[in-house]
Structure to design on (442 residues):
């Protein structure tokens, strides 16, 4: 992700260059959809969030400050919109409690799954993510799926880098625990 | 238990965020502490599992929807002659629409005129801040055909349906302290989504998906949703109001053929 390139594209978009707009959308649409999917746990919600994110980005292009990274800005909107959407729908699955772990075991046998195919692994990883707090989920998504470094995460989440590190560590331990109990780790 | 400093050091090693001095410190830590080595292994295992995750399948049609929405959002320089959205294309239907850029019909007139016709009576004389759909003058000759009052703890106000030769308008005036989700189901038989307008540009989005329109009202808002009406059959629009996922009210508005 190059901020110089992005900043140049934003400038061209502001001048009305449709080609630049299409390039910028093409560069980020899959990443934003992917992050939104991991944050909301639902492809339809992720689609909605992605649309809102791009709408907001382009509506407020004139407010974008190119001293900051474009991708930090767009990821910040993505995180906020994803959390807002989940809250609006009252579907906060913040089940970060020990008993919730049982729910990601084999629904038929109630025991741990012995052989998991790729799809099952993905499903259980997503279920585990949805059992985390939104704050924890956000740092995991930005680090592991969006591949932002600490500084960019700090910018995207508007929290100090030190908080990013401690929150990420806590989130990883929690996710590790959840995946361990579901036989993924 | 490793100290927070040790934890961050181990984590930074995995994330490639170490500075040279820290590399030495981490090497020493891992050599001296079995607990640190365990934490390091666990975090690496987690990173490996997450790295193996395939990206979700990107929805078909979303790319064009995003391009259209983005172009609409910066419409003045990009698309001065903005065309009406192709309401019957599935890809477009699911677009979250920037309200002030939703074109209802090809030819236009200021929406100021639209809502002047709608109010019964209009709650305010000043519609200069309106943004949204545009209709031809003839299409605005509408008559009230149905409506109801809302008088609930979560939301109050009224909804009025007006019908013209080729248009149906559902006009809302709502007041809710918290978010109230409003869903309109129109089934797409004889009706097509035609646009949206509001007095103030405060409602952030409207979702139009497969014959359903969904929006969230919070506070006092006056807005209207437009439908193209073929007039071939009686039109029915089912409205559902929810707050905190709880049903507040549901009612169907109907207009004769």
């Amino acid at each position: 992700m190059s901020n110089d390139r992005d900043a140049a594209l934003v400038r061209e978009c502001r001048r009305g260059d449709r080609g630049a707009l299409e390039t910028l959308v093409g560069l980020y649409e899959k990443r934003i959809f992917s992050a939104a999917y991991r944050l909301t746990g639902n492809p339809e919600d992720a689609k909605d969030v992605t649309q809102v994110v791009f709408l907001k980005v382009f509506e407020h292009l004139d407010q974008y400050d190119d001293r900051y990274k474009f991708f930090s800005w767009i990821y910040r909107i993505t995180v906020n919109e994803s959390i807002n959407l989940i809250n609006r729908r009252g579907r906060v699955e913040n089940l970060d409690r020990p008993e919730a772990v049982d729910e990601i075991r084999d629904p038929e046998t109630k025991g741990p799954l012995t052989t998991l195919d790729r799809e099952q692994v993905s499903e259980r990883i997503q279920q585990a993510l949805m059992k985390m707090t939104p704050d924890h989920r956000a740092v995991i998504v930005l680090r592991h799926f969006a591949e932002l470094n600490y500084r960019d995460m700090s910018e995207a989440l508007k929290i100090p880098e030190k908080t990013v590190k401690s929150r990420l560590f806590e989130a990883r331990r929690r996710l590790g625990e959840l995946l361990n109990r579901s036989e993924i780790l | 238990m490793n100290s927070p400093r040790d934890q961050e050091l181990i984590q930074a090693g995995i994330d490639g965020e170490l500075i040279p001095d820290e590399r030495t410190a981490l090497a020493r830590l891992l050599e001296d502490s079995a607990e640190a080595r365990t934490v390091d292994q666990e975090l690496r295992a987690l990173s490996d599992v997450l790295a193996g995750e395939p990206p979700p399948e990107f929805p078909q049609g979303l790319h064009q929807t995003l391009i259209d929405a983005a172009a609409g959002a910066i419409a003045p320089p990009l698309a001065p002659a903005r065309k009406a959205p192709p309401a019957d294309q599935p890809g477009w239907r699911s677009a979250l629409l920037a309200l002030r850029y939703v074109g209802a019909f090809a030819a236009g007139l200021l929406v100021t005129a639209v809502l002047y016709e709608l109010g019964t009576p209009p709650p305010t004389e000043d519609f200069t801040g309106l943004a949204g759909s545009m209709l031809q003058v003839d299409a605005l000759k509408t008559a009230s055909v149905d409506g109801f009052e809302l008088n609930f703890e979560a939301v109050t106000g009224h909804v009025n349906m007006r019908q013209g030769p080729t248009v149906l308008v559902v006009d809302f005036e709502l007041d809710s302290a918290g978010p109230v989700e409003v869903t309109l189901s129109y089934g797409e038989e004889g009706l097509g989504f035609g646009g949206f307008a509001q007095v103030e540009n405060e409602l952030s989005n409207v979702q139009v998906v497969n014959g359903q329109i969904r929006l969230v009202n919070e506070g006092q808002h006056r807005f209207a949703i437009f439908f193209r009406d073929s007039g071939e059959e009686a039109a029915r629009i089912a409205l559902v109001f929810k707050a905190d996922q709880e049903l507040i009210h549901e009612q169907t508005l109907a207009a004769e053929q």
